[in-house]
Amino acid sequence: MKKINLFFERLKYLNFLILLFPYQLFAQIEVKGVVVDADSKEPLCGIVIIEMNTDNIVISSVTGRFKIIVSDSSMIKATFLGYHDYVIEALKFNNDTI
What pLDDT, on the 0 to 100 scale, is given for residue 79? Predict the structure, then answer.
């Protein structure tokens, strides 16, 4: 009888982990786009893209492109010396230009 109870106790924990796992899969999204100058519309390289309140950071390429995986509830900040910071919610970003 103890073995059967132990089996069901372990099964309960396994079900909990199985239900929790898909939540972790959908809790992150990929944000990608191009950073351009507002006046000249030329791509900007070396722009720092930060998931705020984390240490998740990427830098835009020579063509201004970037890709970062963030949690769906996070805020993203693009920053560069000499420019104003740009902050947007990850879910509101539509793979466009910054």
Answer: 92
